[in-house]
Amino acid sequence: MRRLGRSRSGGAAARVPPRTPADAAPRAAARPPVGTPPGPPQGPIATGPVTAWLLPLVVLLATLTVGFAFGLWERAWWALLGLVFVCVVLLAQEIEPRVPLRSRGLYQRVLALGFPLALLLTWEWLAGSGILNPRWFPPPSQIAVALWDLTVTYDRFNRSSLLGRPWLVPEMLAESGWAGVQALVGESHVWATLSRVLGGFAIGATPGVLVGMVMGLNRTVRMMLDTTMSAIYVLPKIAIFPILMLVFPNPFGEGPKIAVVAISAFFLVAISTMAGVQGIDKVYLEAGRNFGASRAQMFRHVILPGALPIVFSGLRLALGTALIVIVAVEFVRADKGVGFLIFYYWQVLVTPRMYAALVVVMALGVGLTALLQWLERRAMPWRRGGDGRG
Predict the structure, then answer these.
(1) Dihedral sign, CA of 297, 299, 304, 307?
(2) Distance CA 374, CA 200 (A)
(3) Across the strands, what pairs with 77?
(4) Which of 13, 106, 252, 275 has a CA-to-CA distance to 267 between 20 and 30 Å?
């Protein structure tokens, strides 16, 4: 046993002196107390975050300086803008962790609103300096003026206006009654497009949800309809518009336009609803059966709530597709509608008004999507706390 106490060199074994409270004091002093937030890194590590924050800023300033000094914007503006965008993204990523938590939401809103504003200002500068051809890419200031002109001007040639001149409603109501108000509404391009979208969407989405539910619950029906629906779904809906014009008694009326929107919405809603029903967790179905739920109770309390998130996702896709399809249809067969405005001002080469009509389409898309999201929050109140909306 004594040999085990000796070192390899044959000397006496090195004895470890016992630790005393005085020895542990320096280590305890070096260790921060529990709950103390970590301080900034010390030594060479502190230069890492500064370098990561400084490098994108230096590259951004260098890109702008070199581009203006050597006149590179006219020849390679797209490459310089891409490099500026990358630098701005990296700089924003480095700044965000340094923003206090109470101001993090404000910082994110500034990013969400600042980027479109910076994009518009860049477009204004590119078109104003001649880098972009202002005839084909008019600056946003001209587009805003054209949008205002479209809103307040009555087109005597086409006998139409953008919004239907709502400021004349009291006067027309006093002079001609509701017939005059209907005449004002009938001249509106926005109302013509909205009525076609909403009518076709309602006609197509309602049976789409029902058929999708049946296909998700019944394997036989799903096997019978899946192949046929997949084959028809891939057809461009604008391609079947001539067939619908042959089916309806009035080929130039509203029937074919609303029908093609309904067909577009039906397939998207049906397929997404079927996927939502099939994607319900089996645990919920087993729990409902174990509690003795009937078929009606299973559908109301388990299947429908479980499939609603995917159903509303399909409704949003169908609503966007409906707007795209109706604009394309109005290109070729309409005398009123936002799509008609786009194509008409393209034919007469009034590009600011053409872009203004495109802005109206985007505004319609944002408004309709917001309306559908509002309905989604009302239909699924249990998700309000989870997504932060309510």
Answers:
(1) positive
(2) 20
(3) none
(4) 252
Phi, psi of 12 (to 5 degrees): -70, 150
Cβ atoms 162, 148 nearer than 8 A: no
Nearest to 254 by CA among 299, 197, 324, 202: 197
Both structure tokens of 15: 């004895």
C-alpha–C-alpha distance, residues 324 and 254, integer Å: 17
Residue 6 main-chain phi, psi, to 5 deg: -105, 155
Q: In a structure prediction context, what are the per-residue pLDDT tens digits for the chain, which is 390 residues long? A: 344 444 444 444 445 455 554 454 445 444 555 545 455 444 443 344 556 778 888 888 888 888 888 888 888 888 999 999 999 998 898 888 888 989 989 999 999 999 999 999 999 999 998 899 999 999 999 999 999 999 999 988 888 899 989 988 898 888 888 888 888 888 999 999 999 999 999 999 999 999 999 999 999 999 999 889 988 888 888 889 999 999 998 888 999 999 999 999 999 999 999 999 999 888 888 888 888 888 888 888 888 888 999 999 999 999 999 999 999 999 988 889 999 999 999 999 999 999 999 999 999 999 999 999 999 999 988 876 554 444
Which H or E run contains 89?
helix 73-95
Helix (H) or strand (E) holding 386: helix 384-387
Give CA 38 to chain center in angstroms.
38
Query: Rounded CA gap, 312 and 289, in Å?
Result: 26
Name, in order, each residue with C-beta under 8 angstroms of 140's C-beta and a sequence gap of 6 or more.
120, 123, 124
CATH fit for domain 179-381, picks 1.10.530.10, 3.40.50.720, 1.10.3720.10, 1.10.150.130: 1.10.3720.10
The whole-angstrom separation of Cα 114 and Cα 121 is 10
For 276, 305, 352, the CA distances from 281, given in Å and listed in that order, are 10, 12, 52
* CA atoms within a 13 Å half-sphere pointing along the CA-CB vector of 201: 22
Can you give the residue ranges of every domain in the chain? Answer: 48-128, 179-381
Burial class, 136, CB count within 10 angstroms (exposed 0-12 / middle 13-18 / buried 19+): exposed
**What is the residue whose two structure tokens read 């929050």?**
377
Quote the pTM value.
Answer: 0.79
